[in-house]
Amino acid sequence: MNIRRQIGLNLRRLRVARNISQQKIALDVDMSLSYLSNIERGKANLSVSLLGRIADVLGVLPVEFLAPVSAKDVLAKNLKRGRNVHHQGRRSPKTRKR
Length: 98
Prior knowledge:
By secondary structure, this protein is mainly alpha-helical. The N and C termini lie far apart (50 Å). It has helices spanning 3-17, 22-29, 33-40, 48-58. The radius of gyration is 16 Å and the shape is globular. The protein contains 4 helices and no strands.
């Protein structure tokens, strides 16, 4: 397995287990939400110092991001959206009330 993917899966597993949103981590670590999302999906590289800051927010040791994990072990459950997100779902133009 790709090391970026392994770190990303562990990050998502640890974050969801603690019921912490991506938005909260991004704000606490001072990074963009899209960058954090790319890390979780294994699409972006991250520095060791950033990994340490994320570990601090999650309350874990950085070595926990390197634990063996499979995609099947990571819950597919999504957390509630952050309070600053106003998206309520889109309606198709035919069902939109006017």
